[in-house]
Amino acid sequence: MAVTDRPLALGFPRIGVVGGGQLARMMAAPAGALGIGLRVLANSMDEAAAQLIPDVVLGSPDDAVALRELAQGCEVITFDHEHVPPAVLQELTDAGIVLRPSASALAHVHDKITMRRALDAAGVPGPRWAVVADEAEVLAFADRVGWPVVLKTSRGGYDGKGVWVIREPALLAAVLAQPLPEGAAWLAEECVAFTQELAAQVVRSPSGQAVAYPIVRTVQTDGICTEVISPAPDLSAAHAIAAQELALHLAGELGVVGMLAVELFDTPDGVLVNELAMRPHNSGHWSIDGAVTSQFENHLRAVLDLPLGSPAATSRWSVMVNVLGGDYPDLYRAYLHCMARDPGLKIHVYGKDVRPGRKVGHVTVCGDDLPDLLRRAHHAADYLTGTITE
């Protein structure tokens, strides 16, 4: 049952959000500014979004009954993750519940093989790939594309989970012996020799309006995004424009409503698509402090078919660094040092218990001097996690 069902001002809608994580939490501020109500489906009242948003339905994302309760009185349902089973999404659609993005669009992020097939059909460049079932098929694929190869579970992976870079045949057996998530298969991809990793974010409304954010450079550590620079430095104008056009094209081809993040490899010959996400994305957190309209506000605008806001940057550079859990659990006590040392720093925390490697917050700095911004952002993130003490 919803913890509260507070009335909204006349004419203002309520949005249901599947998932109680930090992405739903960061929707709260722009929703409040717009007068929009949010209701979240969370596993517990301790989840990040449930701490801030008073209208909560407790339940699992695979529970159709809980999802129907979430939808009662909501104009539309959107998502802070992609882990709702396709059968449940279809059941909600058949019941007349408005999902944005739709079940048909979400199929492309629920299963990476479905995504790869759709990208090929749309003429979008990506790594060479194949569905494989055993060592012999992986070896045959590696003979075509060369070593190393990337093995992925087609379902269930995120933040580096479900992804392995296999550098030699002897390592195959141990990976393939691991159980696959329900309904998943093994996907083999060539290991791209990229110059940098990029992300293109666009947002699209049901009426077809779409805008593109600046292309950003992302840095991954053990499969987790640790640093984002907007706009991507050392990126040619041709590749930046190609990446934005590719993302806008995909949003239309796949029928995405809301935010679409396209993770990309930048290569000397052009950009290649790595992964997709149909929701606000870690690569766009910089926009809260560094853009005219944040990715979270534009996502809410899009799913309600409101006119979209400007994605333009407000500073020459924005740097976002994730705060990953370490051995120092008391983030709040670290504020004093960080805020006093750098009044221009923006700190965002997610209300999560600190665990090693867990995303518990991020810091952002904006300005004209990129090396200085990088130094400041990393110093703050390192101090908040206890990596440094001064």
Structure in words:
By secondary structure, this protein is of the alpha+beta class. It folds into 3 domains: 14-99, Rossmann fold (3-Layer(aba) Sandwich); 128-190, ATP-grasp fold, A domain (Dna Ligase, domain 1), CATH 3.30.1490; 196-384, 2-Layer Sandwich (D-amino Acid Aminotransferase, Chain A, domain 1). Helix content is 30%, strand content 26%. The chain has 13 helices and 17 strands. The chain has helices spanning 22-25, 28-34, 64-71, 86-94, 103-110, 112-121, 135-145, 172-176, 237-253, 287-290, 295-303, 331-341, 370-384, and strands at 14-18, 37-42, 56-58, 76-79, 129-132, 149-153, 163-166, 186-190, 196-204, 210-212, 216-221, 224-230, 258-267, 270-277, 317-324, 346-349, 359-367. The strands form 3 sheets. Strands 9, 10, 11, 12, 13, 14, 15, 16 and 17 form a 9-stranded antiparallel sheet that branches. Strands 3-2-1-4 form a 4-stranded parallel sheet, sandwiched between helices. Strand 13 and strand 14 (270-277) form a beta hairpin. Helix 4 runs antiparallel to helix 5 (103-110) and helix 5 (103-110) packs across helix 6. The chain is globular, with a radius of gyration of 21 Å. The model has no long low-confidence stretch (mean pLDDT 94).
